[in-house]
Amino acid sequence: MDTQQITAPPCTPSPVPGDATPSSGVIHANVRHAAGFTVIGNHLAQHRGLSLTAIGLATHIQSLPTGAKIGIKQLAERFPESETRIAAALRELEAHGYLHRSRVRLTDGRIVTRTVSYNQPGATGSTTAAPEPRTRRTEPAAPRPTPQPPPREPAAEPHPARTPALEPAPAPAPEPHPAPVFVPAPTTPRKLPPPLPQPRELTPELHRAAAALLTDLRRHAPQLVLSENDIHTLTPGVAAWLERDTHPDTVRHALTNDLPIPLKHPAKLLRHRITMLLPPPLPGAEGLAPARAGVIVIPLQNCDGRDRAFRSRHPGDCGDCGDCGDCGDCGTELHTAA
Q: Phi and psi for 84 in degrees, rounded to 5?
């Protein structure tokens, strides 16, 4: 009966009074910083609307000295995040007031991005770095005065009027930073396009031939669909080509060859080609230019008598077969009638 029977496990010892260690969650092991630290507010560290990337980026930016480069490319070279994530985090900080970026023009004409970081959004503060804490100077203790015998009481004299002590002049207010001067960029005068060539004499036949050639371009190049106003504007330029004895097929090839894809402005392209590709007049053809231009609108007819081609506004006989008796003897292959 002297054997002790243990029927229950021993009780857990009660916690020590004053012990603040939690049973779960994070436990802080803090060491006080003496140098090289940045104060970050809980409104940033525990922000519910910012991503962790934005919170970490804001903490990094606030720890940098004034003038440090915080461009997207510089941050992407330093951290493993991509430029896309860093740009999105910077936009988050701008939306919540922790960052402000603006484009300003310097006095030399360069445009730069000015970035201001706020450690307390909405508060007005200086944008310069905080000054270094000053160390208190220890002054040597003043020597104790040597005891002297009490002086004799002098005769009563009138007390002079006290002069008020001069107050120190107030320190001058710091000069504000000069606002950036926005210098407008120099504007280059717009170069006007060269004028559309004009014929020396725009006859009705020449006008109809040039307008018909422009209207017919859409059959050869479907993208060259011109309005009536465009055709009316470009007709004098094509007439100048035809007046210089240029064959209509040559004009059509110059206007439709090697078109850009896609073609956005057909009339502008045709105006450019008509102006820049205009051929020079043939030598010695100045006096014949009106006559040659008139031939373009006179169609070819087939002679009923000799089956030969001649130019006339009406079909029938060439009118020259009866002069020589036999067209085969004269060796003429083409008869023309005025």
A: -65, -45
